[in-house]
Prior knowledge:
- Helix content is 19%, strand content 24%.
- It is an alpha/beta fold.
- It has two domains: 5-152, Distorted Sandwich (Spo0b-associated Gtp-binding Protein, Chain: A), CATH 2.70.210; 158-321, P-loop containing nucleotide triphosphate hydrolases (Rossmann fold).
- The protein is rod-shaped.
- The two termini are 47 Å apart.
- 44% of the residues are buried.
- The site of guanosine-5'-triphosphate (GTP) has 23 residues, from helix 1.
Amino acid sequence: MIVDDVTIRVQAGNGGDGAVAFNKNLLQLGPVGGNGGDGGNVYAEGVAELDMLNQFRFKKDIRAADGERGKRQNKNGLDSEDIILKVPVGTVIHNLILKTDGEVTHIGERVLLAKGGMGGRGNFHFRSATNQSPKQFEKGTLGQSFDIRLELKLIADVGLIGLPNVGKSTLLNELTNAKSKVASYPFTTIEPNLGAYYELVIADIPGLIEGASQGKGLGIKFLRHIERTKTLFHLISAESPDPVFDYQTVRAEMKMHNPRLLDKDEYVFLSKCDNVASKEVEQKIKLLKKINPHAYPLSVLESETLDTIKTILNKIKDAKIAPIDKE
Length: 327
Ligand SMILES: Nc1nc2c(ncn2[C@@H]2O[C@H](COP(=O)(O)OP(=O)(O)OP(=O)(O)O)[C@@H](O)[C@H]2O)c(=O)[nH]1
Ligand SMILES: [Mg+2]
């Protein structure tokens, strides 16, 4: 099971204290205390693997090392190493102490979670004409420490939604390299799956049922994964006695979760059409078109219907690669 919401405590390293030391060599008396090193920072860095938050299931306390103390002979303490936490692209970072939000949107992007403290200056630094043997030094400053909530919100171009068992995973597997589990019973998919259709990322999320927004089934946990998806493909089974009712059930749950989900570009597909007489398919499409003019039949066994989907996906892909120049 993918961990997609976890709170951790990050503690950056403290800066090392500056040193107080004096040269024992009688010919070169004077202060020789070096500066302390800086404490390690803690960063998050984007990677493609969706399951990277699993690493925090049992390891919720992340601590970077403190900077080294300053040394004798005017040698500075070493800075300590940064900790870089790999998180899936699409991870939203909530700083629960500062009440700020950030996010990691692409692979290799680094976001600072906690800054390490600065090393203090040693007594060498405080020498002057009037004070040739200063005992002053600075303490290193404290590293930042925060409670951070990491929340994965997938960044997919197209999200497949619908009631359970309508063929979402089958379609994802048909169009992409994904190997989402398919079976003839509801709730086969228990966590999101992604697949790539050329430059587009398609997300398959667990089926939604009535009451999902109140926590029924698995859907609610995953609705947030379509919050940032631009286009939704809403699948409704042709075998349903009332496809319009199914459509409205899912839309009602989406609305309760976040009304803005309803504003997304939406295409409706009447799935498993091969299981139903063509006359019935026609009638059901007609009813659905009254709600959304972009309603089409779909069967993974009928290549024309897949061609329709591919044409739509190609349009979305072209718009993504070359955004229309409005000037
Ligand atoms: N005849 C026919 N069966 C299909 C078609 N698409 C999917 N199925 C079957 O429908 C069943 C459910 O398919 P899934 O792809 O697992 O459905 P899902 O919407 O992902 O289901 P959940 O993960 O439970 O929400 C499987 O037995 C599929 O083989 C289709 O176009 N025609
Ligand atoms: Mg599925």
